Amino acid sequence: MNFTPVAVAGAYRVDIEPHADERGFFARAFCAREFAEQGLCSSFVQANISRNARAGTLRGLHFQHPPHAEVKLVRCTRGALFDVVVDVRRESPSYGRWAGVELSADNHRALYVPQGCAHGFQTLVEDTEAFYLVSAFYAPEAEGGLSWRDPEVGIDWPLPPTVISPKDAAWPPLQDIKL
Predict the structure, then answer these.
(1) How large is the greatest C-alpha to C-alpha distance in the chain, in angstroms?
(2) Which CATH number characterizes residue 83's domain?
(3) Which residue in 12, 112, 119, 132 is the catalytic one?
(4) Site annotated as Participates in a stacking interaction with the thymidine ring of dTDP-4-oxo-6-deoxyglucose: where (predicted)?
(5) β-bridge pairing 110-113 and 72-78
(6) Catalytic: 68?
């Protein structure tokens, strides 16, 4: 696997290294040893699937407060999405910065989201599915979020949102988040 840092400290674009032949290809999507060698979390406790019917669907931006903070490894298994990580760690050198990566079933790319960062995505085509591993169990009492349209962060979403939940639409701006 190839690990490429993005604009948020500790976040990485993860690309597979396919081994192809006449049958197609084979590649590792995750390897605990390779992640550990990069100094990244290599222990995940839960896997989630998010199915989205409409292009433009926006989910996020989500995180969990300590002690339930989580690392995510996000991949698109059907369709295409624009995956976003935002640094909400006040002590971080990249506080307030965001990075976006296009993930698709065709490019087999993943995004590694470190603890203390908000995560969300927007679907780019109909019938898009995301699959992601998380390092901590979901704890409703620790749930937090960041406004997807906070002007201080300034995420450049590729499409106008077509679907967003009332809860995701109501998350506060960055200045109001206390981890």
Answers:
(1) 54
(2) 2.60.120.10
(3) 132
(4) 138
(5) antiparallel
(6) no
* Total domains, the chain: 1
In one-letter notation, the amino acid at residue 103 is L
Active site residue 12: no
Which domain covers residue 46, as residue numbers?
A: 2-176
Segments of the chain scoring below 70 in pLDDT:
none
Q: Which one of the listed residues 12, 19, 62, 95 is annotated catalytic?
A: 62
What is the bridge-based pairing of β-strands 2-5 and 12-15?
Answer: antiparallel
The answer to whether the beta carbons of residues 79 and 128 sit under 8 Å apart is yes
Query: From the CA atom positions of the chain, what is the Rg in Å?
Result: 16
* Euclidean distance between CA atoms 171 and 108, whole angstroms: 30
Could you tell me which residues are beta bridge partners of residue 57?
163
Q: Is 166 exposed, middle or buried (0-12, 13-18, 19+ CB in 10 A)?
A: exposed
Amino acid type, 109:
R
Residue among 176, 94, 93, 159 at smallest CA distance from 124: 159
